[in-house]
Known about the structure:
By secondary structure, the chain is of the alpha/beta class. The chain contains eight helices and five strands, in the order βαβααβααβααβα.
Amino acid sequence: MRGRFITLEGGEGAGKTTQRARLAAMLREAGREVVETREPGGEAGAEAIRTLLVSGEPGRWEPVAETLLHYAARAQHVARVIAPALARGAWVISDRFADSTAVYQGAGQGVAAATIRAIDAASLAGFAPDLTLILDIPVADGLARAAARADTNRYERFDAAFHGRIREGFLAIARAEPGRCAVIDATRPLDDVARAIGEAVGARLGVTLPA
Ligand code: T5A
């Protein structure tokens, strides 16, 4: 039986990486094989592209070139890691996926939604997550969490207006696709966020997870 594909989305420092590990642990305890991965990256070629994207100055790339780089990485990632894992029945949890391009390169950097949809269709032929968890946090709180880490990335250096558009962009996707997306209040303590995620996954994907 095909596995399930879950994505974690949200602005900088929302807690996606932390919660990916927590959710993976709950699913493993429930007996599922779990593959944890991330974007940009998750596969050798895609990780090489990631280096081009997350380092350097904010204005390094033309927005449409940046969009194509994210989709080049994603096409590798889906074909060589995600799809094979799902085919053997594993559950895949990705720290970011296509919604990040719609929001960062679309709402954030001004690439037309129709352009991104066309690139998505050409690259992924309709492949999409079963469930997307949008971790929502005020911009300043998320950036403060992210800044506490040693390795700040290129996107964290975009201005505050950009990050405001990112938060709103994710919430707009959640409103447009309520069947696929669940919004999680990421301002709460780690354990509370993990519990809310476990409840959303349990209710929407029909799996019983440890409390
Ligand atoms: N990007 C990506 C695009 O522009 N387009 C795309 O298509 C894609 C796929 C990737 C960048 O690429 C951009 C977006 C990104 O900027 P990244 O380094 O992977 O770069 O950046 P993020 O995905 O934003 O990862 P972060 O590490 O910044 O944030 P996370 O993963 O959301 O947060 P996490 O778990 O690392 O936590 C950050 C800190 O907060 C603490 C953690 O302990 C950690 O110290 N924390 C909490 N503290 C208190 N309460 C909680 N509930 C907490 N949860 C976490």
